[in-house]
Amino acid sequence: MNLWKDFNRGIIPENPVLRLMIGLCPVLAVSNNAINALGMSVAVAFVLIGSNLVVALVRKQVPDQIRIPIFIIIISTFVTICDYIMQAYYPDLYKALGVFVPLIVVNCIILGRAEAFAYKNPVLNSVLDGAGMSLGFALALGSIGVIRELLGAGSVFGIQLFNATIAATIMILPPGAFITIGFLMAGLNKLENKVQ
Amino acid sequence: MLRIFRMAAILAVFCIVSAGLLSYVYLFTKPKIDLFAKINFNNSLKEVLAEADRFNAKKSDSNLVYEGVKQDKIIGYAVPVSIRGYSGKIQMMIGIDMAGKVTGVKIIEQKETPGLGQNILKPNFLDQFINKSTADPIAPKKDIDAVAGATISSRAVCDSVREALGLVHKINLEEKGKQ
Q: Which residue among A7, A10, A150, A179 has the highest number of C-beta atoms inside a 10 angstrom radius?
């Protein structure tokens, strides 16, 4: 039951993007189309689950005073591995995500979960927490990506649905990201009020 | 005192393990990464000078150009140019035939604004340069329709095409001088 709770937490109740509002930098930048959003989500999931796993594994050996530098070493190792692998096997996606892959290292979701959860909890719980948070991040980023691509470029996952000339270009530019996130947050709050 | 050494040792262990792991991944992925970069570059040569069967690298002053060869005859040049765009470098390949006319422009790498500057990748912008020569002004508002909302990106492409044309013009003059 506890395990389920740890997994579930990141999806809606503490959704990193729409609830905690952390890690917004990549969310704003790469959610201009659905494929980029998906690629970014996979990269973040790899790093987040990996770093949560390793942090939980070594937490008893890590002295309190130097935990942050050690978290950063662990996180940046995973980010760099992810960066190389993406460059070698998915060059097109890598080109589209650009600088935001190396920037995962400063994504506060990842350091936040290492500090707030993985450092205090056993391995299995930490991995599930990482998976749940990644899924929550992916759902938020994915829906923002789909909405922005649809309204801003008239396509979804690169498939043209209507003529791009009547689309609102503002939606694939930065203001579109803020507008979309705002509406999604409002929608989520409304939904929750109803449920309660 | 002992505690400090213990912490330093722990931190060092983490660094060493991380560095070892990363160098392994680096060695493992490096050949693939280089391969993609090379394929990308070679494809751009063929795209801008489709007629050529093979390309020879040639140095002209400090610039590297590629001679496009078809049946032992040079039929044109492919010139790699790199210029500052609106955000970061734009790397381009420009094909020019022996008559000094542009045969194709291909953008290899760029980091322009999605939705605005990135429209310089579209054929209806790039195809405008075909058949241009040093006799043309090659500038937005003159003979080139700039991409809407992306004057700087458009101008950067124009400047590069002009630069490549100038370079090939110079090489042609030198070749003629030798004969």
A: A10
Strand-by-strand arrangement of the B73-84 sheet:
B54-60, B63-70, B73-84, B89-97, B102-109
What DSSP character marks residue B179? -
Give the start-end residues of each E strand in chain B. 54-60, 63-70, 73-84, 89-97, 102-109
> Which tens digit of pLDDT belongs to each residue from A117-131?
999 999 999 999 999
Residue B22: inside a domain: no
Contact B10 A91 (CB under 8 A): no
In a domain, B29, yes or no: no
Calculate how close chain B gets to A98, using CA atoms only, in Å. Answer: 8
| Other C-beta atoms lying within 10 Å of the C-beta of residue A101 | 24
Statement: the pTM of the whole predicted model exceeds 0.80:
no
ipTM for the assembly: 0.80
Neighbours of B129 (CB within 10 A): 25
Residue B9, in any domain of the structure = no
* Cβ contacts of B16 on chain A, cutoff 8 Å: none
Q: How far is CA A37 from the centre of its chain?
A: 9
3-state secondary structure (DSSP) of residue B3: helix
Within the 56-75 window of chain A, which residues sit less than 8 Å (CB to CB) from chain B? Answer: 61-63, 65-66, 69-70, 73-74
Digit-coded pLDDT (tens) for A97-110: 877 888 888 888 99
